[in-house]
């Protein structure tokens, strides 16, 4: 299954298929916005409450650590999702925020039929997908069986070892000014991990906010991954959410999925690790 779906394709799909549509928009007013208007039939998922297990102390694990598989099982069950369910997820950032995180989490537990809405909610509205303000009620389903995360991740110790290797590729998807150390609006220290390459997640999108073609995406990332084994490839962001957009782009390009550094910059910058700046 293609990891992304266009708004027009979604309109066709909902006319003849049973799907679960999920709004994973992440903002302080996300649920309020959902109750004001969302794509008809959509359920809401909370990024901070359901797609992460946020701790008071973010030193180890970062700002958005993954929940335990059992917690994610409850989230999927509460959404009425079974292993056979066709799921489409969107956000209001062209799929660049928590929609991609939800996609990665579902694929990482082995769920095959999950797609991100290309262009996000705005693109669906533009082609006439109907809106609703009703808070949807999910179907009652058996507990979703989740064993463990299957896709590769890496922790702080693993990153310490990674940057000592002769050949590795660490992609930092944050904005260039954060990578260069010019500004840091969220975390405590500005800069980047030694040896990291900056490819902002926006590189994955065209001027209208849609994913580039598989061929264009493949060209971008194959250059970066030249001479590195798949196990020595890592993608990170600020807290492990937006990095999933680049992992989604690699799936669109049919490339091997690198390791996700879940703790990302929010963890690295709080643990007395070497920090590089380009100032």
Question: What do these coordinates show?
Answer:
The chain has 279 residues and is an alpha/beta fold. It contains eleven helices and twelve strands. It has a five-stranded parallel β-sheet with strand order 1-6-5-2-4. It has a five-stranded parallel β-sheet with strand order 8-12-11-9-10. Strands 3-7 form a two-stranded antiparallel sheet. Helix 5 packs across helix 10. The radius of gyration is 18 Å and the shape is globular. It starts with a strand and ends in an 11-residue tail after the last helix.
Quick summary:
With 279 residues, the protein is α/β, with parallel strands linked by helices.
Q: Strand order across the biggest sheet?
A: 1-6-5-2-4
Q: Name the helicity range.
A: 25-40%
Instruction: Please state the structural category.
Output: alpha/beta
Give me the count of strands.
12
- Distance, first to last CA: 44 Å
Question: Which radius of gyration do the C-alpha atoms yield?
Answer: 18 Å
Strand fraction: 5-15%
Which spans have pLDDT < 50 for at least 5 consecutive residues?
A: none
Backbone shape? globular
